[in-house]
Design brief:
Blueprint (H helix, E strand, L loop, with lengths): L3 E4 L6 H10 L2 E4 L1 H19 L24 H12 L3 E4 L2 H15 L8 H12 L3 E2 L2 E3 L8 H11 L4 E3 L5 E3 H7 L11 H4 L5 H31 L9 H5 L4 H14 L19 H4 L1 H23 L7 E3 L2 E3 L7 H29 L22 H17 L21 H32 L12 H12 L12 H12 L2 H10 L4
Parallel strand pairs: 1-2
Antiparallel strand pairs: 3-5, 4-6, 6-7, 8-9
Length: 517
């Protein structure tokens, strides 16, 4: 990717983080950032030359902060904190997460509040631009004092130690990888080792990417909910703007408006009084905007928290107004709470989505559709087991909705006696977002098949609307099979998942319905 993100002391944006993490955008340091870092370094150098002990500059760390460290041992002190804290275990963390973590740490270093030298920041940028990705492990962060172990594994690469992945995907020792790209390892000075470890960058990077992914999934869920309402011959009158104005939650209004746009021109809606009369549609259909809208409002709150954190300079101690001060800004509670909140919203949105799918498959509640949407029920099982898969995913999402941020295990000999578990909240949210995408994909698969099975109503002028027809056509072109006898289902469901995740569903719906929120 040819674009370059210029890092400034004032912070960065959602789009910049996504561009670096997922699309390989290059990074550079602005003149303002270089000047801010140099000024902060002069403060640290002055304190390092003085007789008074300063945490992170001339003392040990955590519970060992009581020891004063002489000048002759300080480079070793900073190198050792990186080595000792690179203690992660378990599977490797995804490349995009590591790149987000590295970029966000560079953003804080460039703020001029950490005391890290400009040449260290330049090396961080060079590693990102070379496409080198430190090997970071799943387990090791308590989300307090920063994402210590994950950030330590990244800092270890700057020293030419540990393991990293090259741009070709090959994992090997970091030293030779740096040398192959003309990058000299850094030699850390006072405070620098600590400053490279003490941030919320991992959980923030995962929050930003989850917000981006959930934004697309919420719109996708509005589309599939509308298709299900249409396939069940439900009424769109519950989506009227004046009804939602009575309860002025912005997310609810946005979801209802999306569904109404998707249903425009449908010949199937409003026939709930025909063959199997009903006064109202079931909650899973009628209350779709209320549930998806609540998830939207939760996402909006999470984005606000993430934007504040993007503007922050999280380190301990920090350089401020010509002095170095200890603080507790590294505590991950603000992020941990919203990460858990998003997992709850994802689980509930998945739950109502699955209930709509089950309704499509049950001939006693589907208003004329064949059992399990099978072509020849009894000989064919249709989508019976697709709903099982969806239900299993919903069960997992409910388990993932159990908050991580209410837990705390004291560490560092009780010096760090309350921690956020924000990293764990972020890790489980990534799994939840993946699961929600699959749940929405199953509803898409069922709803498009159900709409095709309504062909018998076409003679009465009852045809799906333009948006539904556009989605069906695009889904079929993307490999999502339509009605027919039983077939090997897993590839079709995987194609539906790709169609949802890749934005094909939203693009197809918008081609007929116009822009969706």
């Amino acid at each position: 990717m040819s674009m370059q993100i210029l890092v400034r002391p004032s912070g960065t944006s959602f789009d910049d983080v996504i561009a670096v993490a997922r699309h390989g955008a290059r990074v550079g340091l602005s003149d303002e950032a270089l000047a801010a870092m140099a000024a902060a370094r002069r403060v640290v150098d002055g304190l390092a030359a003085g007789p008074e002990p300063v945490y992170g500059v001339s003392t040990g760390f955590g519970a060992l902060a009581v020891r004063h460290i002489g000048p002759e041992l300080r480079e070793r002190l900073q190198r050792n904190i990186v080595r000792s804290h690179a203690a992660g275990l378990g599977p490797r963390v995804e490349r995009e997460v590591v790149r987000a973590l590295m970029f966000l740490r560079l953003k804080t270093v460039a703020s001029g509040h950490t005391g890290v030298r400009p040449e260290v920041a330049a090396t961080m940028a060079a590693v990102l631009n070379a496409g080198l990705t430190p090997v970071v492990h799943e387990h090791g962060s308590l989300g307090c004092s920063g994402d210590l172990a994950p950030l330590a594994h990244c800092a270890l690469t700057l020293l030419g130690e540990g393991e990293a992945e090259g741009p070709d995907g090959t994992v090997g020792p970091a030293g030779p990888l740096l040398a192959a790209h003309g990058i000299a390892p850094v030699e850390l000075r006072e405070k620098e080792g600590l400053a490279l470890l003490n941030g919320t960058d991992g959980m923030l990077g995962m929050l930003i990417m989850a917000c981006a992914d959930l934004g697309r999934l919420l719109t996708s869920a509005d589309v599939t909910a509308a298709l299900t309402l249409e396939a069940l011959l439900g009424t769109e009158r519950v989506l009227a703007p004046e009804l939602h104005a009575l309860r002025p939650h912005p997310g609810q209004a946005a979801s209802a408006a999306n569904m109404l746009r998707v249903l425009a021109g449908s010949g199937l809606t409003g026939h709930h009084q025909d063959d199997a009369p009903r006064v109202q549609d079931a909650y899973s259909v009628r209350c779709a905007p209320q549930v998806a809208g609540a998830a939207r409002d939760t996402l909006a709150h999470a984005r606000t928290v993430a934007e504040r954190e993007l503007a922050a300079a999280v380190d301990n101690p920090v350089v401020v107004d010509g002095r170095v001060e200890s603080n507790g800004n590294f505590h991950g509670a603000p992020l941990g709470y919203v990460l858990d909140f998003l997992a709850i919203a994802a689980a509930d949105l998945a739950s109502i989505t699955e209930r709509r799918t089950d309704r499509l498959l049950d001939r006693n509640r589907s208003h004329g559709l064949p059992p399990f949407l099978a072509e020849d029920a009894g000989v064919d099982s249709g989508l019976m087991i697709a709903q099982y898969t969806q239900a299993a995913l919903v069960g997992e999402l409910k388990r993932l909705a159990v908050p991580a941020s209410v837990d705390s295990i004291p560490s560092s000999a009780m010096q760090e006696d309350h921690v956020s578990m924000g990293w764990a909240a972020a890790r489980k949210l990534r799994t939840a977002v993946d699961g929600l995408g699959r749940v929405v994909a199953v509803e898409l698969y069922a709803a498009t098949r159900a709409l095709e099975l309504r062909e018998g109503l076409a003679g009465r002028g009852l045809r799906p609307g333009p948006a539904a027809l556009a989605v069906i056509g695009a889904a079929r072109a993307a490999g999502v099979a339509g009605r027919g006898e039983d077939r090997y289902l897993a590839p079709d469901l995987a194609a539906a998942e790709r169609f949802v995740r890749g934005g094909g569903l939203i693009e197809a719906a918008e081609s007929a319905a116009g822009p969706l929120a």
